[in-house]
Design a protein that fits this description.
binds 3-acetylpyridine adenine dinucleotide, 17 helices, alpha/beta, binds flavin-adenine dinucleotide, 5-stranded parallel beta sheet, 9-stranded mixed beta sheet, FAD/NAD(P)-binding domain
């Protein structure tokens, strides 16, 4: 930073707020800041809006929350005029929607692309953030009273440390940074590493093109069928006729989405009734399967009934019983994010698709032409890393954030610490959208993003109104909240798997359960904090 020329500093731009990231969070944050009459600038590393939907262009990428719910609700005009075409919108359609929002609310003039935020340093006097940007090979600094990290929970690809990966002479792709122009896999031998949601969505489509697909699986995942289809106009008309009531109902549901949540225990019903309920949800498709009984996420025995049901389904979908067994998880359903697929398991019945079980034969190295396992050399033309993300903390940790008492990375060395996932003690006027300790990835994320953005905007508005210049989370409130997040998680099945919710997918990352389980109590807590004059925060001028 010391290398920045003085004349550059003299011309330094100043904003009320800098927003990092132009996904759904950053775009809406900008809109709300402007409504407050504040000057704001969004900086985005990519060259367009949409975040997740800008980067994840792999075949089959689409949402698994129904389109009518996975959309903004802050503008009734917007939600009335936009027409989704399918039950689960494709990546191109969601990206088009993001661009439409940027047009409709004229966001473009205050967003700067191809610009990565490298650092943010708090200056005690005058109490502003000095933000370092990297843009087209140059470094620039701007100043802002507030910084909002709208950097995404799943925006930093997890690159596996496999010996020789950098020596591979064929084409190497990560699903999370898929080339914009697409990839033609015709006549290609493809090796896919990973079997999470991205792999499960893309493998059937890759198999439709490629000569061969070998799937390298470390841990199998449960997947339920999507039964995606064009949207029924009557259903759309019905939702649109009562959109705000529908959204309000969803705020009262555990995951903030309409999963037709049951209040019954899996043991309130007979075996036959339970199976009928699972069959019904399986036939309708989607994540609502997990809400068949209220105790599935909490009670091992209840969860075991769902496991048994899905295992039988996998056995019915995969012809070879040995292969079916390898594709079948032994963990609780849902403790890793449940996947939603179209023909995933059936794809393994095709003669040119095979599974390599890494528990039997781990990858030893990658050569120029092959993935080598303990007992075989798998010659491939293309390697697809479907290896996920450094979730929830990855993007913020890549920014050198320095508060009055030290760096955020030092503070988070043993795992992230934040109050409500909105702010972190020791870092005044720095906000997080869907940060650790918020429901974020355990909810329908678009509504959660809107709720966070509105909370932050209202907070800044309150500060403006009361001529307050600084807000900071209190350490005690933060500690209490983190203890509560863990207490709730420990009542559930979630900590029982090596999931990215726990940071378990990234080598060397601290094992800490990051999201908060329960949208309604979270909303209540956020409202209560405000009602008590920002309880747990210190505001000053
Ligand atoms: P993002 O969309 O991740 O945007 C963050 C942006 O910040 C990125 O564009 C990134 O480039 C930018 N950025 C990060 N660091 C910097 C920096 N230092 N400088 C400049 N720019 C930076 N959620 C659901 O609820 N339902 C779904 O169906 C669903 N499907 C998903 C499918 C996929 C393939 C993935 C990966 C995620 C999915 N999610 C889903 C989660 C999804 O991430 C959120 O729903 C939502 O899109 C997140 O929006 P965001 O703005 O918070 O973050
Ligand atoms: O990533 P993942 P993802 N060697 O972390 C494996 C959202 N999303 O991109 O389980 C071998 O789930 C890893 O194995 P293991 C959604 O929230 C939604 O698929 O760690 N394998 C795992 O199998 C989702 O949960 C949709 O043992 C390695 C896989 O790679 C989140 O994004 C679609 C490995 C990674 O799975 C992330 O999904 C896509 C290694 N070194 C994404 N490292 C929808 O459907 C990792 N793996 C809406």
């Amino acid at each position: 930073m010391g290398q920045v020329e003085e004349h550059e500093d003299a011309a330094r731009e100043q904003f009320d707020a800098v927003v990092v990231g132009a996904g759904f969070a950053g775009m809406y944050m900008l809109h709300r800041l402007r409504l407050l009459g504040l000057s704001a600038r969004v900086y985005e590393a990519g060259d367009g809006v949409g975040g997740t939907w800008f980067w994840n262009r792999y075949p089959g990428a689409r949402c698994d929350i129904p389109s009518m719910e996975y959309s903004y609700q802050f503008s009734d005009e917007l939600q009335q005029e936009w027409e989704w075409s399918e039950r689960y919108a494709t990546q191109p359609e969601i990206l088009k929607y993001a661009n439409h929002v940027a047009d409709r609310f004229n966001l473009w003039p205050d967003m700067q692309f191809n610009t990565r935020v490298m650092a943010a340093e708090y200056q005690a006097s005058p109490g502003t953030w000095l933000v370092t940007l990297a843009h087209e090979g140059t470094t620039e600094r701007v100043e802002a009273r507030f910084v909002v990290m709208a950097t995404g929970c799943l925006s930093v690809p997890n690159m596996p440390s496999i010996e020789g990966l950098d020596k591979f002479a064929g084409a190497l792709y990560h699903t999370g940074t898929w080339p914009r122009e697409g990839v033609d896999l015709t006549s290609k031998r493809v090796g896919v590493i990973g079997t999470g949601s991205s792999a499960i969505q893309s493998i059937p489509l890759m198999a439709a093109q490629a000569t061969s697909v070998e799937v390298f699986q470390r841990t199998p995942n449960y997947s339920v069928p999507a039964h995606n289809a064009p949207l029924d106009p009557d259903y759309v008309a019905d939702i649109k006729s009562r959109y705000s009531e529908y959204r309000a109902e969803n705020w009262q549901r555990g995951f903030g989405a309409d999963f037709r949540d049951s209040e019954r225990s899996a043991f309130d019903v007979t075996d036959a009734e339970r199976t009928a309920e699972y069959e019904d949800r399986w036939a309708r498709g989607g994540l609502a399967f997990l809400a068949a009984f209220a105790d599935l996420p909490f009670d091992d025995a209840a969860n075991a009934t769902a496991q048994a049901f899905i295992r039988e389904k996998i056995a019915g979908r995969v012809d070879d019983p040995d292969l079916a067994a390898k594709l079948t998880p032994s963990t609780p359903v849902g403790c890793k994010r449940l996947c939603v697929d179209t023909d995933y398991y059936e794809t393994f019945n095709e003669p040119h698709v095979s599974l390599v079980d890494l528990n039997e034969t781990p990858i030893t190295r990658v050569t120029a032409t092959a993935i080598e396992t303990a007992d075989h050399t798998h010659e491939v033309d293309v390697i697809v890393l479907a290896t996920g993300f450094d979730a929830m903390t990855g993007a913020v940790s890549k920014i050198d954030v320095r508060g009055p008492q030290g760096t955020l990375n030092d503070k988070w060395a043993q795992g992230p610490r934040a109050y409500l996932g909105l702010a972190t003690a020791g870092f005044p006027n720095l906000f997080l959208v869907t940060g650790p300790g918020s429901p974020s990835v355990l909810s329908n994320m678009l509504p959660s993003i809107e709720q966070h953005v509105e909370w932050i905007a209202d907070c800044i508005g309150y500060m403006e109104q009361h001529q307050l210049s600084s807000i900071e989370a209190d350490l005690e409130a933060e500690d209490n909240w983190i203890a509560h997040v863990n207490e709730v998680a420990d009542t559930s099945i979630y900590p029982k798997c090596n999931s990215w919710y726990l940071g378990a997918n990234v080598e060397g990352k601290s094992r800490v359960f990051m999201p908060y389980l329960g949208v309604p109590p979270y909303l209540e807590k956020c409202a209560d904090v405000v009602a008590r004059g920002y309880d747990g925060f210190t505001l000053s001028n």
